[in-house]
Specification:
It is built from 10 helices and no strands. By secondary structure, it is mainly α. The protein has one domain: Tetracycline Repressor, domain 2. The model has no long low-confidence stretch (mean pLDDT 91).
């Protein structure tokens, strides 16, 4: 039952945001009583924390799987974008800022995951791309890895990219292309063109 509660909470939080979803909403969607939820989670903070932990574990599994299954570093970035795009299809972009404001402990956990796991995955991708000859030899791996991870999360900031003007997918696609064109060699840029064409088919 605990896993079912977390899964349903994750679905509702992603769709409607954290603030608007109550424990009553989660219970109602589960067909259970609120008392049942409180047997496993003492309050909404603890439930949000469990949802963040589940998301972290899913991220780690998917990102590791992508890194192991791609032909090259450039393809890995495109596959990572596809994973993000799938997530955005069911995600309310306000969730990150609501977490920061209303559930600071869960936000701290997510931020630590971002700054450790995502940065390390990106560093590995950059080192791989340099070895393959698709990325420039002169890039500072530590700086560019952190820049790329922060740029992904920047797309969620409504004060920077107003949702009335841009979709989140448009923003993230532009940021990804800007990043890749900045670090790729001419050989790598041919791969960008190849994978863009494949996306457009």
């Amino acid at each position: 039952m605990e896993q079912r509660i977390v899964e349903k909470a994750q679905e509702l939080f992603f769709r409607y945001g954290l603030k608007s979803v109550t424990m009553d909403d989660i219970a109602s969607n589960l067909g259970a009583s609120k008392k049942t939820i409180y047997q496993y989670f003492k309050d909404k903070d603890h439930l949000v924390d469990a949802v963040v932990q589940r998301e972290i574990e899913q991220d780690m599994h998917e990102c590791t799987s992508i890194a192991c299954s791609c032909d090259n570093a450039v393809q890995e970035v495109f596959r990572g974008f596809e994973m993000l795009q799938e997530m955005l299809a069911t995600m309310n972009p306000a969730i990150i800022f609501e977490m920061q404001k209303y559930h600071p402990e869960a936000y701290k956990k997510m931020n630590a995951h971002k700054n450790k796991f995502f940065v390390n995955i990106m560093k590995e991708n950059l080192i791989k791309g340099i070895k393959e000859g698709y990325y420039r030899q002169d890039i500072n791996v530590e700086v560019i890895a952190r820049y790329r991870v922060e740029s992904i999360f920047l797309g969620f900031n409504p004060e920077v990219f107003m949702q009335s003007k841009f979709t989140l997918v448009q923003v993230e696609m532009e940021l990804m292309e800007h990043f890749l064109y900045g670090i790729c060699t001419p050989k790598g840029q041919k791969l960008i063109t190849k994978y863009k064409q494949q996306r457009e088919k």
